[in-house]
Every structure is written in structure tokens, then in C-alpha cells.
Amino acid sequence: MKHRPRRVVKLSAAAFAPVAQLKCATCLGPPRIPKLESAIVVARNVTKSFRHMGRTLEVLRGVDIMIDNGEVLAIVGPSGAGKSTLLHCIGTLDVPTSGSILLAGEEITRLPGWRLADLRNRTIGFVFQFHHLLPEFNAVENVMMPGLVQGGRPRLELEVRAGALLEEVGLKDRMLHRPGELSGGEQQRVALARALMLEPKLLLADEPTGNLDSATSSQIHDLFFAINEQRGTTIVVVTHNANLAASMPRVVALRDGRVETDERRSGQSAERRAPATG
Ligand SMILES: Nc1ncnc2c1ncn2[C@@H]1O[C@H](COP(=O)(O)OP(=O)(O)O)[C@@H](O)[C@H]1O
Ligand SMILES: [Mg+2]
Fold this sequence. Notes:
Number of helices: 8
Bound molecules: adenosine-5'-diphosphate, magnesium ion
CATH superfamily: P-loop containing nucleotide triphosphate hydrolases
CATH architecture: 3-Layer(aba) Sandwich
Number of domains: 1
Structural class: alpha/beta
Helix content: 25-40%
């Protein structure tokens, strides 16, 4: 694959830290090794089983993964490998059957529900394949929603922040559109802005471009990289998109509920591994 400097997406308005110079995929430098003290996620021997029609389905079979604060990584693997289940466990949406998950230093497998919800709100933003926007609300209202649900901040402040976020994801001219009046890529941008509303340290995205064409996917990917570069947000993306995975400094491959490979690599080797299509 030809060396292609990553497109610079300018996210310079109020909600973002000063714009840092983006690096191209071949200039990522040496792979970073997560350290326990700076890890945002430390999952140890995580298992997850479901009871289904009288049978026990072992979906995660002892996953170990450490994710450093500020890392960007892809989780790949065949359908049914347990990718979404792992993301849900890390994101406190589901509880492991056994094992331990430290999220921002808190052992989430032992926290009561209300502490979990609070930690989730303070720490995590989610982007799903199906954006789950509320159809009767416009883009600004959808982005504000996490702030409205959380409470405690004036509506006007939330509106201003939602507007700034929408502007930053390139939707300045679509703020008052409802989801049904937006393209698939625009809807996913709204979902991304919504995920950033409460300034999460960790952004978890489950096949966020699964429904989008390759040009639109590529723009969304550029936004992920820009968010990471400028905010230091840790980003974990489950993806089938070979090009996105190939551009990541770290790729974790799951198979049958286990980590098959966990590769940290320089941009150079990531580029070399990129397939011609995807
Ligand atoms: N709530 C559930 N009850 C029963 N089985 C489930 C449940 N959630 C997921 N599974 C099963 O677990 C396996 C892994 O699912 P998932 O994590 O969604 O895979 P992936 O995201 O890698 O495609 C699948 O075989 C799926 O059918
Ligand atoms: Mg899935």
C-alpha cells in the first residue's frame, strides 16, 4: 500500500485542546507498551458465559488485555468471536462471569450498579454500528442528551457544547436536522459527537462504520484519530474494516473467545500489512 499521510481533520473549537500536529501512519514511531500504572483498562482472565436453551455458551474464555491511557487499538476477529461481548464487559454494560477488570483504577466486577453507572458516565463514550439516535430529536438535542440525563448543568451550556462538538465533526450545517434527515455517515458523526458530550477518557466503538461506504468510513476513521491526537482519548474500535485495522498501532485479534494475537507495531509494518481493498 502506498504511503498516504493521514488526512488532517481540524478540531480546533472550544471543546478541544489546542490542535496537535497529526502524524501520518508511517510516522507512528515505535510501538508503545502499556504500563500497569498508566493503564485505563486492565482485564485479567475474563470469562463470560451465557445460558441459552439449557446450554452454557462460553463466549469469552480467559481474555487478558491491558490498554494504556491514550492508546488507539482495533479489535478484530470473525463474527461470533466475542468482540462485542468483550467491549460490553469493558464498558460496564455487561458483567463478566469471572475474572477481573480494572477501569480507570476501579475494579468494576465488584462495584454496585449505581457506582458502575456513575463510573460509566464519567469515563466512557460508546459508538455503536446502529447509532441509536432518538428519531424525534434533532442533532443538537441528541448530542445534548447524555448531559440532560446526567443533570446538573444548565441547558444553554449543554446546547453550546453540543453545537461546538457538531461543528467539530463537520455538521455545522446539519444541527437542526433529525436523524431521518441525515445520511448514514452524518448520523454516525452525530453519534460520535454524542459520545464525546461528557468528555470520556475511553471511547468504545463497535463496528462504527459497518454500515457505511468506504469513503465515509475513512472520514469517520480520520475523526477517531483526530480525537485521539487532540484530546488524548483512548479509543477501542471493533472493526471488520481491514484498512482501519491496518492503520492502527495495535491490533488485538479474538478467536473463539480468546486473544489470538495482540500486535503492537510501528506505522511502517501496519502499512505493509494493509490489504489492497477493504
Ligand atoms: N445475550 C446472549 N445470550 C446468548 N448468547 C449470546 C448473547 N450475546 C452474545 N451471545 C453469543 O456469543 C457469541 C459472541 O457474540 P459477540 O460477542 O456478539 O460476537 P462478535 O461481536 O465477535 O461477532 C455469539 O455466538 C453470540 O450468539
Ligand atoms: Mg459484534
